[in-house]
């Protein structure tokens, strides 16, 4: 790990590995999109967890093998940034380079379609509750797929890709993904340990705040503490603090929910590690990414406060149950007279 002559698998040490991991975190976008297709799966409670877990494990192994093979094939400073594998085989193995290029092209197309697949269904669902205009909830009459949402996202995504620098997009996607995964990990713990009206939420909220604080201290120490024994002491102290907090929480706060078929195992350790790692990776991104993320997050909050809240409450007050083919469905009066009547 000599900075003057970097070499090997870790030319810039652990810091380089984590900085790179934060940059390419967008590679794991798409697996969560499977959950948005629960309405189209025959046995979602069984098939979705198996599909998500299995695909993540397989792809992670393949990613690691590809990275290791590239590190062994060429020195890091000779790897082509734009097309690493295709360029590595160019020359003597030209046909291999062409095959890799074709495969990469199909991979980009597949990733785009998967991203649109989940996002379109998400917009369709929130359109039914009027959080966004109900126009997005319209589905195709034959295929029952979200037609308007898919068309809008296709045009919108193409426009962003055409006019925005790739590095800006990658950083913005990475910070958004890390933040969402951080929130999901918090939500998993909260839902498993809190039942509204039965348990008090403050022990769980206190644990989540303390865990987040210890993770943040670790991240700040990693980036700003001077090298040497003081830095190692601070890092070890933060890890020990996070471990102690989680251990105390596990033995003092009982779980009140247990999934019937499948749920996150090793509670609360696994989501706690996720919280810790997501905060750490968030600290590896640059400042402008946070500015852009804050701007778009603030814009989304404004839309939600000034439009979505009022539209959804108005729809509920007027007795609308949802949207079918883009048209609002009003609650049937027959259902009030006959409790067995299904709308």
UniProtKB/TrEMBL annotation:
A GO molecular-function descriptor: amino acid transmembrane transporter activity
Subcellular location: Membrane
Record keyword Membrane present: yes
GO cellular component, one term: plasma membrane
Membrane topology: Multi-pass membrane protein
Cationic amino acid transporter C-terminal domain: residues covered: 262-312
Keywords: Membrane, Transmembrane, Transmembrane helix
Residues that span the membrane, as ranges: 12-31, 52-75, 95-118, 145-163, 169-190, 202-225, 231-249, 261-283, 289-307
Record-stated family: Belongs to the amino acid-polyamine-organocation (APC) superfamily. Cationic amino acid transporter (CAT) (TC 2.A.3.3) family.
Protein name, as recorded: Cationic amino acid transporter C-terminal domain-containing protein
Organism name: Gossypium stocksii
């Amino acid at each position: 790990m000599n900075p003057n002559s970097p070499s090997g698998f870790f030319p810039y040490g652990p810091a380089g590995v984590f900085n790179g991991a934060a940059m390419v975190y967008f590679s794991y976008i798409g697996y969560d999109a499977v959950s948005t297709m629960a309405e189209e799966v025959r046995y979602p409670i069984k098939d979705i967890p198996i599909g998500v877990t299995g695909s993540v494990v397989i792809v992670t192994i393949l990613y690691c093998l590809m990275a290791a093979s590239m590190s062994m094939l060429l020195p890091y400073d000779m790897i082509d940034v734009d097309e690493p594998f295709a360029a590595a085989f160019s020359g003597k193995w030209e046909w291999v380079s062409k095959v890799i290029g074709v495969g990469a092209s199909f991979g980009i197309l597949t990733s785009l379609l998967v991203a649109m697949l989940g996002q379109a269904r998400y917009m369709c669902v929130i359109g039914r509750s009027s959080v966004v205009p109900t126009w997005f909830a319209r589905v195709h009459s034959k295929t029952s797929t979200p037609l308007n949402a898919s068309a809008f996202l296709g045009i919108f995504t193409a426009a962003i890709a055409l006019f925005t620098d790739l590095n800006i997009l990658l950083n913005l996607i990475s910070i958004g993904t890390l933040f969402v995964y951080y929130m999901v990990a918090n939500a998993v713990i909260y839902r498993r340990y809190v039942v509204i009206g039965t348990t008090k939420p403050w022990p769980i909220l206190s644990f989540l705040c303390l865990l987040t604080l210890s993770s943040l201290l670790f991240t700040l120490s990693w980036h700003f503490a001077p090298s040497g024994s003081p830095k190692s002491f601070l890092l070890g102290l933060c890890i020990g603090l996070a471990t102690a907090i989680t251990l105390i929480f596990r033995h003092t706060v009982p779980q009140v929910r247990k999934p019937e078929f499948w749920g996150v195992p090793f509670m609360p350790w696994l989501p706690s590690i996720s919280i810790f790692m997501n905060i750490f990776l968030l600290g590896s991104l640059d400042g402008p990414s946070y500015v852009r993320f804050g701007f778009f997050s603030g814009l989304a909050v404004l839309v939600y406060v000034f439009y979505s809240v009022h539209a959804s409450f108005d729809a509920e007050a007027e007795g609308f149950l949802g949207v079918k083919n883009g048209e609002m469905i009003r609650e049937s009066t027959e259902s009030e007279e006959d409790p067995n009547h299904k709308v």
